[in-house]
């Protein structure tokens, strides 16, 4: 008998019909002799609808009440699913974050899970009851409701799997797994059988939206293998797990892209100690995340600094830099929101040379200008003009022979 955590995303519980289908799968899993903990998202579109309501009332709604509002979608989905299970004759009980409790810090909208009390869950599981937990939400030590950031139910699921020492954590979604690239761009994109935690971490943070990045950090930290699969089919999905020697043989596992960033250049700032610190400190204080940074050495004692931020932060970041311009002795500030980051990821890059030069050659052959480059042990990212995103993804996917012969069906 195994303990399995199954998480179902919004589309998987998007209608009463879908909820019945999911209930059948859960019932079957339990009847095969397993203990089952289910984590749910809100029904698809619901969290956006709730966030929209809050936005109608306030320009900056994030905070305590915002979390009270946006966490409510999960209350409905867990209640409905538990009811559906009971109607089938499968004992089930729903739990909100504070009922478990799932304890977090007080960073509203991006709270971190600190502790999960598994006592109540374990007691119900011992009775053969399916435990249905609301994803995305927790409670702080003062009893305030918190949420974990968009897509946070993935993190709830992995954290619960870790706390319960589960045998398996399955993430059910509307795609069949993790692909070599976006099948909407490359029709021959191939589903990966396995990816390492580190590869998945890069892919998730680079824009592949299957898993919340923080959930992957969690699964890596506690070594919880995660199976990403579809709730619409019975096909085996992609296993995200610890790297082994087989994985390093595959040089490139996937190509991802992210159109969610923007670029800011500060022109001809003094090339002296402390400039970067002064430049980036106000951004940090404003809670703005800086991703790539490139500094060029000039010859007249000045230097150009270029960096990227998330697009929603662009205007705020640009304004802050503009305000500092004179202070820094900079000649000007330029911005560009029409960029995309295209990245290649693979555990095997650690032990294979020549991947970067091949990437640059392939892009050059298509006349695609690379504006910025950043690398890690297992990733190369290039910032290009947004209009070349699809072309860049396609030529790199081909060049590294990632496609399968079969065409993915929509
Ligand atoms: N319902 C939340 C959201 O839409 C959490 C999740 O789906 O994981 O972001
Ligand atoms: Mg999701």
Keywords:
410 residues, alpha/beta, Carbamate kinase, eight-stranded mixed β-sheet, four-stranded antiparallel β-sheet, binds aspartic acid, binds magnesium ion
Task: Summarize the structure in words.
With about 400 residues, this protein is of the alpha/beta class. The chain has a domain at about 5-175: Carbamate kinase (3-Layer(aba) Sandwich). The chain contains 13 helices and 20 strands. It has an 8-stranded mixed sheet, sandwiched between helices. It has a 4-stranded antiparallel sheet with strand order 13-18-20-19, sandwiched between helices. Strands 15-16-14-17 form a 4-stranded antiparallel sheet, with helices on one face. Helix 10 (about 275-285) runs antiparallel to helix 11 (about 315-330) and helix 12 crosses helix 13. The protein binds aspartic acid and magnesium ion. Aspartic acid binds near residues 73, 136, 150, 153 and 154.
Q: What's this entry about, in short?
A:
This protein is of the alpha/beta class and 410 residues long. The chain has helices at residues 16-31, 46-57, 64-70, 72-87, 119-126, 153-163, 197-205, 213-222, 245-249, 275-285, 314-328, 355-365, 389-399, and strands at 3-8, 35-40, 92-95, 102-104, 113-116, 130-134, 137-139, 145-147, 168-173, 194-196, 226-230, 238-241, 254-258, 261-270, 290-297, 302-310, 332-336, 339-345, 372-376, 379-385.
């Amino acid at each position: 008998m195994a303990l399995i955590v199954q998480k179902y995303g919004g589309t998987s519980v998007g209608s009463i019909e879908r909820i019945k289908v999911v209930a059948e799968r859960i019932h079957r899993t339990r009847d095969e002799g397993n203990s089952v903990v289910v984590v749910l998202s809100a029904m698809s579109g619901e969290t956006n609808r709730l966030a929209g309501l809050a936005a109608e009332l306030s320009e900056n709604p994030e905070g305590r009440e915002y979390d009270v509002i946006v966490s409510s979608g999960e209350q409905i989905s867990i209640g409905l699913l538990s009811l559906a299970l009971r109607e089938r004759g499968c004992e089930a009980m729903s739990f909100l974050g504070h009922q478990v409790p799932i304890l977090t810090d007080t960073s509203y909208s991006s709270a971190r899970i600190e502790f999960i009390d598994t006592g109540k869950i374990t007691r119900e599981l011992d009775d053969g009851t399916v435990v249905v937990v609301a994803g995305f939400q927790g409670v702080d030590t003062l009893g305030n409701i918190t949420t974990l950031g968009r897509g946070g139910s993935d993190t709830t699921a992995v954290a619960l799997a870790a706390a319960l020492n589960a045998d398996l954590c399955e993430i059910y979604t509307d795609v069949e797994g993790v692909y070599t690239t976006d099948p909407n761009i490359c029709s021959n994109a191939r589903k990966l059988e396995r990816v390492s935690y580190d590869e998945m971490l890069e892919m998730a943070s680079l824009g592949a939206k299957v898993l919340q990045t923080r959930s992957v950090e969690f699964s890596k930290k506690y070594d919880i293998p995660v199976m990403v699969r579809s709730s619409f089919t019975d096909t085996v999905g992609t296993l995200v797990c610890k790297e082994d020697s087989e994985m390093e043989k595959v040089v490139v596992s996937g190509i991802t892209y992210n159109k969610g960033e923007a670029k800011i250049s500060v022109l001809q700032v003094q090339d002296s100690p402390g400039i970067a610190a002064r430049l980036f400190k106000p951004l940090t204080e404003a809670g703005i995340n800086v991703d790539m940074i490139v500094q060029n050495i000039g010859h007249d004692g000045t230097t150009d600094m270029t960096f990227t931020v998330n697009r929603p932060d662009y205007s705020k970041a640009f304004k802050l830099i503009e305000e500092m311009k004179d202070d820094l002795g900079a000649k000007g500030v330029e911005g560009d929101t029409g960029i995309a980051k295209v990245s290649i990821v693979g555990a095997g890059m650690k032990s294979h040379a020549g991947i970067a030069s091949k990437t640059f050659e392939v892009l050059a052959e298509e006349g695609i200008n690379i504006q910025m480059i950043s690398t890690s042990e297992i990733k190369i990212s290039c910032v290009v003009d947004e209009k070349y995103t699809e072309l860049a993804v396609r030529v790199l996917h081909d060049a590294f022979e990632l496609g399968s012969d079969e065409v993915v069906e929509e």
